[in-house]
Task: inverse folding
């Protein structure tokens, strides 16, 4: 899919690759299977309270290859941006832009996870900032939101570091860890970050 940018001008939606310092965002590939599984296994108990689950426990679990194909298909259709997060060349997490809506809304929401062994180093705040800038500047989306469980202190700190606007509580919003869970919604629109989100984040870390 090519996304309209200016009259008569388009940009490719996917694949995309973003780099800032030691952080690289790129598509998930089938050859990532062993490393992805190892990171996920090492973080299973740490991630379980925050990750989406299916309300239908009898539903099929996709293989890794099926997951990659599904991500690629949705990305090429302009509905998501499924990025792997690399830190110093090592796979340490994912940042996924989902629910991309065009037309008069031009909005999307972002989810992420990170290897606990590198959490707290600013990798996810920077990765999220990179994604926001890409969505606003390249794809010309207008609004990005992040939905966070009120108990997830680490993710709440990410929203605070980026200065995302708190839009309030959504009750029983997503199925997480086997039940419908409340989430707080944080959002930003393109007009709020004329300097770019990466610049805002960099400046906040220096203040």
Result:
């Amino acid at each position: 899919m090519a996304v309209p940018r200016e009259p008569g001008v388009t940009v490719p939606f996917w694949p995309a690759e973003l780099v800032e310092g030691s952080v690289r965002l790129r598509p998930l590939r089938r050859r990532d299977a062993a490393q992805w599984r190892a990171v996920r296994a090492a973080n299973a108990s740490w991630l379980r309270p925050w990750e989406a689950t299916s309300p239908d426990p009898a539903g099929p679990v996709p293989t890794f290859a099926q997951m990659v194909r599904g991500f690629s298909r949705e990305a090429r259709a302009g509905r998501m941006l499924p990025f792997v997060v690399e830190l110093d060349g090592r796979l340490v997490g994912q940042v996924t832009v989902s629910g991309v809506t065009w037309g008069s809304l031009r909005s999307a929401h972002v989810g992420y996870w990170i290897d606990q062994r590198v959490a707290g180093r600013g990798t996810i705040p920077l990765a999220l900032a990179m994604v926001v800038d890409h969505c606003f500047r390249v794809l010309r989306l207008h609004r990005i939101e992040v939905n966070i469980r009120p108990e997830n202190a680490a993710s709440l700190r990410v929203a605070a570091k980026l200065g995302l606007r708190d839009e309030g509580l959504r009750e029983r919003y997503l199925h997480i860890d086997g039940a419908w869970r409340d989430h707080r919604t944080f959002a930003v629109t393109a007009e709020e970050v004329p300097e770019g989100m990466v610049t805002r984040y960099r400046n906040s870390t220096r203040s």
